[in-house]
TrEMBL record:
<protein>
    <submittedName>
        <fullName>Class IV adenylate cyclase</fullName>
    </submittedName>
</protein>
<dbReference type="InterPro" id="IPR033469">
    <property type="entry name" value="CYTH-like_dom_sf"/>
</dbReference>
<dbReference type="InterPro" id="IPR023577">
    <property type="entry name" value="CYTH_domain"/>
</dbReference>
<dbReference type="Pfam" id="PF01928">
    <property type="entry name" value="CYTH"/>
</dbReference>
<feature type="domain" description="CYTH">
    <location>
        <begin position="4"/>
        <end position="149"/>
    </location>
</feature>
<dbReference type="InterPro" id="IPR008173">
    <property type="entry name" value="Adenylyl_cyclase_CyaB"/>
</dbReference>
Length: 183
């Protein structure tokens, strides 16, 4: 079965109230883990063009292990068909991506804490140069409506009654925008 990862993302305005409410909801967050991601896009694609239907790759390094992921947005950028696997050699995977027509876009470095709320996964991310974010995600069958699932996730987050700002951009777009604003 092809899997679809569906998520909603929020900029965290005030971390302490969020942490308190998550604890009250029974969400135990892990200790922070550093993730270093190199994002890739097809050579013909550029920022400003639609992402729906376009495969994007990521090479993530966490504690010396490398994870290769391809996401293809479906209903929007945060409802994606996803395939991933562990790779032994990040350098060789990078070269393979270049040979099949991908180009590196941005590096995303973050400290991630994870937890669960029922069947949903939660990530509290401190993204270097961009800020703190809460992601709530689930995995569904490929044909399920991403928009309907996102509406349910959003309703749960809004029920937390914590000040958060919904974000519809992916981390690569947010990091790229922050880099251009600083330049």
């Amino acid at each position: 079965m092809e899997a679809q990862e569906i998520e909603v993302k929020y900029r965290v305005v005030e971390p302490e109230p969020l942490l308190r409410v998550l604890a009250e909801e029974g969400v135990a967050l892990s200790e922070p883990v550093r993730q270093e991601d190199q994002a890739y896009a097809p050579a013909w694609w550029d920022y400003g063009k639609p992402k729906t239907g376009v495969p994007f790759a990521r090479l993530r390094t966490v504690q010396g292990k490398h994870l290769f992921t391809v996401k293809t947005p479906q209903d929007n950028e945060m409802a994606c068909l996803e395939a991933e696997t562990v790779v032994a050699d990040a350098g060789q995977m990078h070269q393979a991506l270049l040979q099949v027509g991908f180009r590196p876009t941005v590096r995303i470095i973050k400290e991630r804490r994870t937890g669960r709320a029922g069947r949903w996964s939660l990530c509290l991310d401190e993204v270097m140069g961009v800020g703190m974010f809460l992601e709530v995600e689930t995995v569904t069958a490929a044909g399920e409506s991403g928009l309907a699932v996102q509406a349910g996730l959003d309703a749960w987050v809004n029920g937390l009654s914590v000040k958060l700002e919904r974000v519809t951009d992916t981390y690569d777009s947010l990091v790229r925008l922050a880099q251009h604003q600083r330049a």
